[in-house]
Write a structure and sequence with these properties.
The chain is an alpha+beta fold and 164 residues long. The chain contains 6 helices and 6 strands; from the N terminus they run ββαααααββββα. Strands 1, 2, 3, 4, 5 and 6 form a 6-stranded antiparallel beta sheet that branches. The radius of gyration is 18 Å and the shape is elongated. The protein starts with 20 loop residues before the first strand and ends with a helix.
């Protein structure tokens, strides 16, 4: 799907088609990101904050916190045009399932690929559930986080019913 195909003001449940894909802008993970996240989360696991310790791990260096990468994913998705069109019709986050197949290192540049994976109507006619497959991909083309985010999305017909 081309972003130009989305409605100028808002995107609704009916506007999303299974298989639509969208890419985010990029962001590079910094030393400051890891230090600040460790302070914010109180997660001072040595794999994240101790370079001498991390040298002797299978990674050979410090890695970013998985939850930091999830937070970066969330931020990158909010910067996507898709999110700007969808935001007025989002009713809530229902579920997140994810895994971390590869580590993220300081200096990695990340982007998010979002795909509409599934759609389901609900018992309420004004909304539906959309499952978005999200993948965080580094500059080497490696997927470092992947999962499914299920969102409750307003139906276009619900907005027309309210204005009638």
């Amino acid at each position: 799907m081309n972003l130009a195909d989305l409605h100028a003001e808002a995107c609704f449940f009916e506007d999303l088609e299974i298989g639509n894909t969208f890419d985010s802008p990029t962001r590079t993970v910094t030393e400051a990101d890891i230090v600040n996240f460790a302070c914010l989360s109180a997660d001072f696991n040595r794999l994240h904050v101790d370079s001498e310790f991390a040298k002797d791990t299978p990674y050979g260096q410090r890695i970013a916190h998985g939850l930091l990468v999830l937070a970066l994913m969330s931020g990158l998705v909010t910067r996507m045009q898709l999110n700007q069109h969808l935001e007025p019709s989002l009713l809530g986050l229902l579920d997140i399932q994810c895994r971390f197949p590869r580590p993220t290192f300081i200096g990695d540049t990340l982007r998010v690929r979002v795909e509409v994976a599934e759609k389901a109507e609900t018992s309420k006619p004004d909304r539906g559930v959309v499952a978005f497959r999200r993948q965080v991909v580094n500059q080497r083309g490696e997927v470092v986080v992947e999962g499914i985010w299920k969102l409750l999305v307003r139906r276009r017909s619900a907005c027309h019913d309210q204005t009638s």
